[in-house]
Structures are given as structure tokens and as C-alpha cells.
From TrEMBL:
<dbReference type="InterPro" id="IPR010287">
    <property type="entry name" value="DUF892_YciF-like"/>
</dbReference>
<dbReference type="InterPro" id="IPR012347">
    <property type="entry name" value="Ferritin-like"/>
</dbReference>
<feature type="region of interest" description="Disordered">
    <location>
        <begin position="156"/>
        <end position="175"/>
    </location>
</feature>
<dbReference type="InterPro" id="IPR009078">
    <property type="entry name" value="Ferritin-like_SF"/>
</dbReference>
<protein>
    <submittedName>
        <fullName>Protein YciF</fullName>
    </submittedName>
</protein>
<dbReference type="Pfam" id="PF05974">
    <property type="entry name" value="DUF892"/>
</dbReference>
<dbReference type="InterPro" id="IPR047114">
    <property type="entry name" value="YciF"/>
</dbReference>
Length: 175
């Protein structure tokens, strides 16, 4: 039978889930960085990898300041999102098209994280975990900034392609 759970149980559950997600991501971001051919995109993944390592440590601090204990669990959603990214790496040869795919896969990840940290901030506030909420907000801002940076890559890639096509058409028009 279903057990009655408290808001604190839910907070612990969601925090344990994102803890697993962040840990999986440290490995996945290294892969994305290696798979990217645009050096700036590769660097952006590397930078977010370092941030992600900091986010894992930040969760440890949330646990300490909120006096809770994490559950051992696996974030299956993140496992699936990472698998989707891996499929792209397996199916598309290295180059601008794969780069665009990597950006799309990474943005799905960031949106998952933004949703998770947003919920955790709201629940933490209800529970009076002021210090924990401050820490979680720092991570939330990092995830949002990463998402914006990825949007810039997505748009830039689109513009470059349009410019190339325009160039080709102009050339074709001349001959
Ligand atoms: Fe993260
Ligand atoms: Fe992230």
C-alpha cells in the first residue's frame, strides 16, 4: 500500500534524484566535449563539466545544512537523456550537424535540471531550509546561464548555415 509521505520526504527524494543526475552528467559532459568539433562548443561543455562538479559538492552542502540524508537512487530520466545524446554521437559523423544535435541534447538536460532545481527551491522554502535554498538557487542560475549559452550556439549554427546557403546561391546566380 502507498505510504503517506511528508514534504520533507519529497524534498529528499527529488534532491537524491538530481544528485544522481549530476553525477551521471559529469561523465556525459566529458563525452559531449570530445564529440564536439566546434572548439568553442567543446570548451563550453568543459566549463559546464567543472560547474557540474561544483554542483555535486553544493548538494553535499545542502544535505549538511538541511540536516537530511540522501537516498541511494538512480535518475532514470537523466540516464535516458544521456542515452539520446549517445545515439546522436553513434549515428552522426563529427561535424556541424552533430554539433547541432549535441546542443539540442544538452538543452534537454538543462531544462530537466532547471525544472528539478526550481521545484527543490520551492519545496526547500516551504520547509524553511534557507541556507539550502540559497545554494540550490546558485545552481539553478548556473543551469539557466548554460541553457542561454546553448541557445546562442543553436542560433549561431543556424545563421552560419543560412549564410553558407546564401553564399552558394549567390555563386550559382553568377555562373
Ligand atoms: Fe547541473
Ligand atoms: Fe546543467
Amino acid at each position: 500500500m502507498a505510504q503517506r509521505k511528508t514534504v520533507e520526504d519529497l524534498f529528499v527524494h527529488l534532491l537524491s534524484d538530481i544528485y544522481s543526475a549530476e553525477k551521471q552528467l559529469t561523465k556525459a559532459l566529458a563525452k559531449l566535449s570530445r564529440a564536439a568539433s566546434d572548439p568553442q562548443l567543446s570548451d563550453a561543455f568543459k566549463t559546464h563539466l567543472e560547474e557540474t562538479q561544483g554542483q555535486v559538492e553544493r548538494i553535499d552542502r545542502v544535505v549538511e545544512t538541511s540536516d537530511i540524508r540522501l537516498k541511494r537512487m538512480k535518475c532514470v530520466a537523466m540516464e535516458g537523456l544521456i542515452e539520446e545524446g549517445q545515439e546522436l554521437i553513434d549515428e552522426i559523423e563529427k561535424g556541424p550537424v552533430l554539433d547541432a544535435g549535441l546542443v539540442a541534447a544538452a538543452q534537454k538536460v538543462e531544462h530537466y535540471e532547471i525544472a528539478a532545481y526550481g521545484s527543490l527551491c520551492a519545496l526547500g522554502k516551504q520547509l524553511g531550509f534557507a541556507e539550502g535554498v540559497k545554494l540550490l538557487k546558485e545552481t539553478l542560475e548556473e543551469e539557466k546561464a548554460t541553457d542561454l549559452k546553448l541557445t546562442e550556439f543553436a542560433e549561431r549554427a543556424g545563421n552560419e548555415k543560412a549564410m553558407q546557403e546564401k553564399g552558394t546561391k549567390e555563386k550559382a546566380g553568377r555562373t
